[in-house]
Amino acid sequence: MTVDKVTNVPTVPIFGVQVSRLNMKDTLNVLIQAVKSRRPHQVITANPIMVMAALEDPVYMNVMKQAELIVPDGTGVVWAANYVGHPVPERVAGYDLLHELLAAGESYHWKVYLLGSTPEVIQATAQRVHELYPGITVCGKRDGFFGPNEDEAVIAAIREVNPDLLFVARGADTQEPWIGKYKEQLGVPVMMGVGGSFDVISGKTKRAPKLFQKLRAEWLYRLLKEPSRYKRMLALPKFAVKVMREKENVTKV
């Protein structure tokens, strides 16, 4: 076990990716303190697909290594930590963490900026956040359809409203590198990639039923709903095999 130098979070390295060993409650407390510090913190919700992508792409791995907090979102990451004898207490799902942050932020009157997805989804998400968490101010929103030439304008718009939280929904291959590249310029205390969370919050799609969640098989539900995801999902068995074959090397930094 190692302790992260920035947040003093106990972590376990999974193929070089430092995964937090905190439960949801303690993770939330760390992030509340992060907001109070006003220093930029990138939160990555790690799953096996992202770990495998980092192993194949040094640039992506560097993004992971530079993040202030990586939580065990994917069931496979939780399993791997347990398998190598450094168990994490529970899965910290990004979707749940997003809601926990919004709920906690009500009493502090935090401001949140929503970035990503389609114009329709981002509008519906903002409305739903307002309904669910009236103590939170949605201080800004923008869809995810912008290129590198617009990054400067997007960053300026976010800085102008000075949010406490920034949620970015642009896909793991885009959102994490984008936050990592610009986090110092953005200056937001807590920045987190949230993938398809806006689709669920807005009502466009449904989260996996409780049964799939209890069985830790949300990935299977998503695959059944979107068979086109099967190529990405091939990383799951590859990850499991790699962990079992290289058990002694999994936690080597």
UniProtKB/TrEMBL annotation:
Reactions accelerated catalytically: UDP-N-acetyl-alpha-D-mannosamine + N-acetyl-alpha-D-glucosaminyl-di-trans,octa-cis-undecaprenyl diphosphate = N-acetyl-beta-D-mannosaminyl-(1->4)-N-acetyl-alpha-D-glucosaminyl di-trans,octa-cis-undecaprenyl diphosphate + UDP + H(+)
UniProt keyword annotations, A-Z: Cell wall biogenesis/degradation, Glycosyltransferase, Teichoic acid biosynthesis, Transferase
Amino-acid biosynthesis among keywords: no
CDD domains noted in UniProt: Glyco_transf_WecG_TagA
Alphabetical list of NCBIfam families matching this protein: wecG_tagA_cpsF (TIGR00696)
The family this protein is said to belong to: Belongs to the glycosyltransferase 26 family. TagA/TarA subfamily.
Protein name: N-acetylglucosaminyldiphosphoundecaprenol N-acetyl-beta-D-mannosaminyltransferase
Organism ancestry: Bacteria, Bacillati, Bacillota, Bacilli, Bacillales
